[in-house]
Specification:
This protein has 253 residues and is α/β, with parallel strands linked by helices. It is built from 8 helices and 7 strands, in the order ααβαβαββαβααβαβ.
Amino acid sequence: MKTKLNNKSKEYNDNFYSQRYKDDWYVTLRVNDAKKLIKQIQDINPFNKNDKVLDLGCGTGEAGAVIKNKFEARVYGIDINSIAVEKARENGLLAKIADIETKWPYENNFFNSVVSTQMIEHLVNPDLFLQESKRVLNKKGLLIITTPNLAVWFNRIILMFGYQPFFTEVSTIDKTLGLSFTRNLTPIRKPLGHLRCFTLKALKEILELHGFELVKVKGSAVNYFPWYISIFDRFFSLFPSLASDLVVVARKK
């Protein structure tokens, strides 16, 4: 039964992202998010010329291409979606079709850094993801993670009134269940496939559990709020535990 459920989930994600990768707005979003991430962590010099960088869930490769072009790094990528991998190769990534939920097709101690943007929340087994990250990273290699924050400021407010927290999904059909008031804000009702939602404390502790030490923690605002809410969101991004998105850099011990 477990295999059937996992296969159904993979089929859903493959179909969902095959369509998403064709949307111009999504491609633009990926590029902008990559530039934003680089700016947020540039003070620790995460990428260098000729570094081997692995972009997990690389999609069509636009985000990885930003790192490749800016730092002259060798950017590899893995994604389960064959359409995305073909496009990622066109964008200059050394991309492979692979399932992140299984052992990755790389040797031990191969990469200088592993980048996971808005991906860990989609995994059935984040422990395997962290074990594989540690395995493929070289000594003192960096793991860079971005993910939505379950304990974001607005979730703390709406939970008091009995609403389902944002970034969590209780249905494979409608992501607005428990958040019916959002139906007037966007026509998109299809779930994103979020399975594991982290608070900052939980993310720190699972990294420590798997042999990583924290190097940098930042909060990040999102870009889909109207201006009058964005003001608050930008303010709370100054406090990572309250921010909409978490940005964490950890080093392999």
